[in-house]
């Protein structure tokens, strides 16, 4: 019995010694706080001349995924860490980097970009007075059609392209080669009439571009059979339309439209520009492509 008590006391004393020994020695554990990813990027320039390019570099940390957006640039998007972007048009643009970090948090970095306009495609700077935009994105022309659509009337479809006179889009009409003649037009996308009657003493402006040597008829049509037809030739350069592959603003007095067809209804314009091939088989020309942009009317056209 005495032996059992001694064993119990021994065990208790050992446990007590271990307890006090543990309490006397404070054990430490290293703790590392998580450092979140940081968004960072740079650009080789933000104010460039036409024809130059910008190199964008993502310098963010702990990146899980990234996406660049370059409105107005080529390419328009990218997931690469380093991207070279060209701008085919002058203007003001945004370049935006969106990043998802490894902890699924998100970050964004944006650049404001200024690109000098193409010196060969400058819009003449006149005092136009009151204006109405038919197909234009120019910031000075506030009133405009809400929607425009193209109509392929005979193997001459119009498609939207980024090669614009101003803004970010234009229409490109090209003969498909399925017929010896071609015809296509632009009209109000809602199927409504276009009223330019208040500009009867003003000007009708059309941005045109082509290097084709083919003759082209440009018509402006209205309800009731109104049809004002203008012939444009490569050699004649009528109303300043040169076939040099650059944009030109063709400005036609509205009075000339009335002279072409006295019965045209300016309050009910249907096709505000209609291309109809001139003489000759369109398939015999190496190039039968015409661009149109920046269509508007103005009360006047005076040098500033």
Automatic annotation (TrEMBL):
Keywords annotated in UniProt: Signal
Entry-linked InterPro entries: Galactose-bd-like_sf (IPR008979), PKD_dom_sf (IPR035986)
Segment forming the signal sequence: 1-24
SUPFAM superfamilies per the UniProt record, alphabetical: Galactose-binding domain-like, PKD domain
Top-level taxon of origin: Bacteria
Descriptive protein name: PKD domain-containing protein
Organism: Sphingobacterium arenae
